[in-house]
Amino acid sequence: MKEHTIKLTILKTLAEGGFHSGEELGEQFGVSRAAISKHIKGIQEWGVDIYRVQGKGYQLAQPMQLLDEKVLSAQFGALVELIPVIDSTNQYLLDKVDSLESGAVCVAEYQAKGRGRRGREWVSPFGANLYMSMFWRLDAGMAAAMGLSLVVGVAIVEALEKLGLEGVKLKWPNDLYYQDRKLAGILVEMSGQAGAAANLVIGTGMNLMMAEQTEGITQPWASLKEVAGTDSIDRNKLAISLITALHNALTDYELYGMRGFVERWNRLDNFLDRPIKLIMGPREITGICRGINEQGAVLLETENGVESFIGGEISLRDNAN
Ligand code: ATP
Ligand code: BTN
Fold first, then answer.
1. For residues 183 and 190, what is the distance between their CA atoms, to the nearest angstrom?
2. What is the arithmetic mean of pLDDT over 193-222?
């Protein structure tokens, strides 16, 4: 059997609900109860909360709806690949950009090495959230990539609104926020040469129903279940909506660039008219956030007037006292 097949099949059984004894699971795979217990430990290391009751067996602490390759491929065909356990969906696509067509997607249930900007870790427990990346070849080249990453953020929030999920905002350049906590992050990575077409990989990690006790996150975070007001989010439907929104946004961006985009961003800017600071290496500038301009730069009002700032090395932070 493939490396994770037993663990994934155990999870499928547990996701059906109820208790499942080590004996029953062992019989299913022709392995001992001790082997099952080892697999359960491995699953727990993926961040899944499983408990065991003497005489009854194992049960998931929270219900889990797994992503379904059949549902995804009925919608997108071979363009979407579900790889339940992976290092990083971004890395997976970056490793094979030469053989991909624009719109190719990789979705995962768990990332062992999920990453954020500047090599920071993206905490990616199994089955709780959404981790996906899309490949896009941008003929306009690398210079156009900054604007594109803002467009993607807006497209995702607007897609959530269409699903009736209101109140999600944006933090420049590409985080989604809910009630001042981080709900999702977007990571655009690229390969290619200056002057040539850019091979872009656009990764999105969105928290859906992450356990409160999840460790390793160094800032306040939120889950989509809070926005939805319910635990029962259909992960397959959501993945389909977000993939569709992303595909449409990238197609539009190639045709129209940032035209008409500033207003769409500013409506959703979490920090619009609020005090912020911009951190650029050792330098910090404080002022009032005034949204973005047509180039996708963040606008900061200081005593010198409104100035624009752009570049991947800038971090925006709340500066309320
Ligand atoms: P910047 O503005 O510099 O991008 P950032 O705080 O958004 O700042 P990122 O590198 O974009 O930083 O994202 C990494 C941050 O996200 C780290 O603080 C990390 O702890 C946090 N983080 C990691 N996993 C998650 C998650 N699943 N949900 C929310 N936040 C997370
Ligand atoms: C950030 O806010 O720093 C961006 C986080 C991006 C996380 C996603 S999850 C899917 C894709 N694969 C990764 O390794 N990272 C991105």
1. 24
2. 92
Q: How far is the CA of 108 from the centre of ligand 2 (A)?
A: 12
State the average pLDDT for the chain. Answer: 94
Ligand 2 atom closest to residue 132's alpha carbon, by position in its atom list: 10
Q: Are residues 102 and 192 in the same domain?
A: yes
Residue 118 pLDDT class (50, 70, 90 cuts)? confident
Answer yes or no: pTM beyond 0.90: yes
Residue 199 is predicted with a pLDDT of 93
**For a pLDDT cut of 90, what percent of the chain falls above it?**
86
Ligand nearest to the CA of 313: 1
Q: Among the atoms of ligand 2, which is closest to the Cα of residue 108?
A: 10
How many separate domains does the chain show? 3
Least confident of 97-111, 186-200, 268-282: 186-200
Q: Which two tokens stand for residue 163?
A: 């699903």
Is residue 104 domain-resident? yes
Residue 321 belongs to a domain: no
Atom of ligand 2 nearest to the CA of 89: 12
Whether residue 122 has its Cβ less than 6 Å from ligand 2: yes
Residue 305: which domain range?
271-316
Confidence of residue 2 (pLDDT cuts 50, 70, 90): low
- Residues 6+ positions from 292 with CB-CB distance below 8 Å: 150, 172, 262, 265, 266, 269, 298, 299
Place of tokens 């807006």: 154
Ligand 2 close to Cβ of residue 114 (< 6 A): yes
Task: Give the mutation target among 107, 109, 115, 206 for probing the ligand 2 site: most ligand atoms within 8 A of CB.
Answer: 115
Q: What is the pLDDT of residue 113?
A: 98
- Determine the distance separating the centroid of ligand 1 and the alpha carbon of 172, expressed in angstroms: 13
Residues 110 and 259 occupy one common structural domain: yes
How far, in Å, CA of 110 to CA of 283, rounded?
A: 36
CB-CB contact of 132 with 203 (8 Å): yes
